[in-house]
Amino acid sequence: MIGIVCQLEEIRLRILRACERAERNVEDVTLVAVSKTFPVESIRLIYDAGQNEFGESRQQEAAAKIEALPSSISWHFIGRVQRNKVRKILPLFAYIHAVDSLKLARYIDEVAGEMSLRPRLFLQVNQAGEESKGGFDETSLREAMDEISGFRNVEVIGLMTIPPAVDDPEESRCWFASLRKLRDELVVNSNMKLSCLSMGMSGDFEVAIEEGATHVRVGSAIFGAREGKVDGELG
Ligand SMILES: *Cc1c(COP(=O)(O)O)cnc(C)c1O
Fold first, then answer.
1. pTM exceeds 0.70
2. Which of 164, 175, 196, 208 has the smallest number of Cβ neighbours within 10 A?
3. Which of the four pLDDT bands, split at 50, 70 and 90, describes residue 227?
4. Torsions phi, psi of 64, nearest 5?
5. 205 has a pLDDT exceeding 70
6. What pLDDT was estimated at residue 149?
7. Counting atoms of ligand 1 from 1, which one is nearest the CA of 235?
8. For residue 96, which of 160, 40, 143 has the smallest C-alpha distance?
9. How far apart are the first and last CA of the chain?
10. Looking at ligand 1, which residue's alpha carbon is closest to its atom 5?
11. pLDDT-based confidence at 231, cuts 50/70/90?
């Protein structure tokens, strides 16, 4: 169990080094520790080591953990959002990373209004057009920005991607660079700031930081290997 605190320290150091290489401030990169499938005790250990942002991908599993842990923790919903779970997800999570359609964004805005909440959203982009993944394609995202910029009850803070799985993280670099470019283009053509980029996981977070990630979602490199594929997992 001490192991995961060491692994957390190791990841922090690697984030720092990546920021140095890219001449970025380390304060501009948020480590979201992805704790899906891992128990409350493991989360508490690294919370005690100063980690305050955690990511979960299943509403039910997360609800039980959130209930058992300090309320000062900031929770990120990183999984696919099912419409019928939105009412349960919104009160628990300050951030939603995988808003994958205009219809869903519209619905979240509506429910957030009813519940007097103001969630922060990332719009997921399916850059490679993979069947297995959700997300906007670039054209539909450009077309949706007009309506999205008018939403009153959500704060759309940026874009998110999960590029195709590869062995060499260098192969992901072009996707990360391209997400950043798309973001820059959308900012020029809308009145939105979109200051955040959620990109990079255990295998490629350093490359993502070099390409401008503000939120890296790191699970197994901190907590260890998960068994099998998790329900609600996107990648
Ligand atoms: C599980 C998951 C992660 C973390 O993956 P690791 O490879 O364990 O770091 C990040 N993002 C999403 C969307 C995930 O589902």
1. yes
2. 164
3. confident
4. -65, -40
5. yes
6. 97
7. 15
8. 160
9. 26
10. 219
11. low
